[in-house]
């Protein structure tokens, strides 16, 4: 067993089709660390950027990645292609509006809408 840690090339695809990266990460890097890297590299000119790590969701191979997992745990079999770059999709959770925060939970529960044509 060699002392060299496996590195993965990862590109982050934003919802508008632009990319952050690709950048190399060790397989032991946590998903939370990837999200911190996204926050640090987020293009300043883009509106509605994430404010915290909790605002970011990462999707790889159709699965939402959990913060406590490592990149190696989430690795797709397609990552084994030599020189291949893994693309992870970045979703930013919208910020809750002030009006939504002030509405009591009781009023939200029983909303039913019927339309008779």
From TrEMBL:
Coiled coil: none
Recorded GO CC terms: plasma membrane
Pfam families for this protein: Rad60-SLD_2
Superkingdom of the organism of origin: Eukaryota
Keywords, comma-separated and alphabetical: Cell membrane, Lipoprotein, Membrane, Methylation, Palmitate, Prenylation
Mode of membrane association: Lipid-anchor
SUPFAM superfamilies: Ubiquitin-like
Keyword Lipoprotein appears in the UniProt entry: yes
Classification via Gene3D superfamilies: Phosphatidylinositol 3-kinase Catalytic Subunit, Chain A, domain 1
UniProt-annotated location(s): Cell membrane
InterPro entries: MUB, Ubiquitin-like_dom, Ubiquitin-like_domsf, UBL3-like, UBL3-like_ubiquitin_dom
Domain Ubiquitin-like: 8-74
Described function: May serve as docking site to facilitate the association of other proteins to the plasma membrane.
Protein name in UniProt: Membrane-anchored ubiquitin-fold protein
Organism: Actinidia chinensis var. chinensis
């Amino acid at each position: 067993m060699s002392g060299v840690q496996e590195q993965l090339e990862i590109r982050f695809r934003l919802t508008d089709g632009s990319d952050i990266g690709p950048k190399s990460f060790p397989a032991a890097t946590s998903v939370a660390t990837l999200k911190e890297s996204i926050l640090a590299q987020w293009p300043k000119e883009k509106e509605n950027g994430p404010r915290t790590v909790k605002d970011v969701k990462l999707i790889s191979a159709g699965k939402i990645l959990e913060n406590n997992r490592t990149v190696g745990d989430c690795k797709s079999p397609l990552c084994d292609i030599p020189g291949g770059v893994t693309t992870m999709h970045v979703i930013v959770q919208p910020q809750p509006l002030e009006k939504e925060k002030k509405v009591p939970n009781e009023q939200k529960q029983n909303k039913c809408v019927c339309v008779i044509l």
